[in-house]
């Protein structure tokens, strides 16, 4: 299967996924794409000799990305820290073959504007005793697609939002590649 990864930032998850599929028979990371020309994920793609490109929000909405994914014969789309809303047409082109990772235990702390540090600050402010990750299929509502996998980690009262982020990233890096592999 040919996989494309969409990311807007650092790409630590994308790197773990590229590492996992480096010698895989089941899946190949064929493309990395970003809406940010300065995103570090593009540097990580170079390291794995995975071809990459960038696109604007306007191009995304005008179907440029969908055409590219079709041309590249992509089977699965992986959202790994991608912050723009995916157009409905693109979601419909990959029925149950587009997955996202969210840094919290959905349905808590999901929805528009709930991403990255905002999530961990909210967990801290609420005084929750645990948080975690959610891997879900993508549908037309933010963070509301069918949940495929969740894993939790305890939150200690003296954990800072940064400590929480570190724990959550560790879960993401451990499980996201394996869960994608199990879907193929
Ligand atoms: N959606 C969220 O955005 C972050 C991306 O991190 P990275 O993979 O770019 O390091 C991850 O925490 C992911 O759950």
UniProtKB/TrEMBL annotation:
Report the active site residues. Answer: 102 (proton donor)
Pathway the protein takes part in: Purine metabolism; IMP biosynthesis via de novo pathway; N(2)-formyl-N(1)-(5-phospho-D-ribosyl)glycinamide from N(1)-(5-phospho-D-ribosyl)glycinamide (10-formyl THF route): step 1/1
Catalytic function, reaction form: N(1)-(5-phospho-beta-D-ribosyl)glycinamide + (6R)-10-formyltetrahydrofolate = N(2)-formyl-N(1)-(5-phospho-beta-D-ribosyl)glycinamide + (6S)-5,6,7,8-tetrahydrofolate + H(+)
Q: Which residues bind (6R)-10-formyltetrahydrofolate?
A: 58, 100
Q: Which top EC class is named for this enzyme in its record?
A: transferase
Q: Tell me yes or no: is Thylakoid among this UniProt entry's keywords.
A: no
User: Which InterPro entries does the record cross-reference, listed alphabetically?
Assistant: Formyl_transf_N, Formyl_transf_N_sf, GART, GART_AS
Residue ranges of the Formyl transferase N-terminal domain? 1-180
Superkingdom of the organism of origin: Bacteria
Return the annotated site residues (Raises pKa of active site His).
Answer: 143
The signal peptide stretch is none
Query: Which is one GO molecular function term here?
Result: phosphoribosylglycinamide formyltransferase activity
Provide the binding site for N(1)-(5-phospho-beta-D-ribosyl)glycinamide. 11-13
Assigned keywords, A-Z: Purine biosynthesis, Transferase
**Protein EC:** 2.1.2.2
Please name one Pfam family that this protein belongs to.
Answer: Formyl_trans_N
Family, per the entry? Belongs to the GART family.
PANTHER family with a match to the protein in the record: PHOSPHORIBOSYLGLYCINAMIDE FORMYLTRANSFERASE (PTHR43369)
Reported function = Catalyzes the transfer of a formyl group from 10-formyltetrahydrofolate to 5-phospho-ribosyl-glycinamide (GAR), producing 5-phospho-ribosyl-N-formylglycinamide (FGAR) and tetrahydrofolate.
List the HAMAP family hit by this protein, alphabetically: PurN
User: What name does the UniProt record give this protein?
Assistant: Phosphoribosylglycinamide formyltransferase
């Amino acid at each position: 299967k040919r996989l494309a990864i969409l990311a807007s930032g650092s790409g630590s998850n994308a790197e773990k996924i590229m590492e996992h599929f480096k010698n895989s028979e089941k899946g190949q990371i064929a493309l990395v794409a970003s809406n940010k020309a300065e995103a570090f994920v593009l540097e990580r793609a170079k390291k794995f000799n995975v071809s990459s490109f960038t696109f604007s929000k306007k191009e995304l909405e005008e179907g440029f990305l969908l055409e590219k994914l079709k041309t590249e014969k992509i089977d699965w789309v992986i959202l790994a820290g991608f912050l723009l809303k995916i157009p409905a047409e693109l979601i419909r082109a990959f029925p149950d073959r587009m997955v996202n990772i969210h840094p919290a235990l959905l349905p808590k702390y999901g929805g528009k504007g709930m991403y990255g540090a905002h999530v961990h600050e909210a967990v801290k402010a609420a005084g929750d005793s645990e948080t975690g990750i959610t891997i879900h299929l993508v549908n037309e509502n933010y963070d509301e697609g069918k949940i495929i996998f969740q894993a939790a980690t305890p939150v200690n009262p003296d954990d800072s939002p940064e400590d929480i982020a570190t724990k959550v990233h560790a879960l993401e890096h451990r499980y996201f590649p394996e869960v994608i592999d199990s879907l193929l």
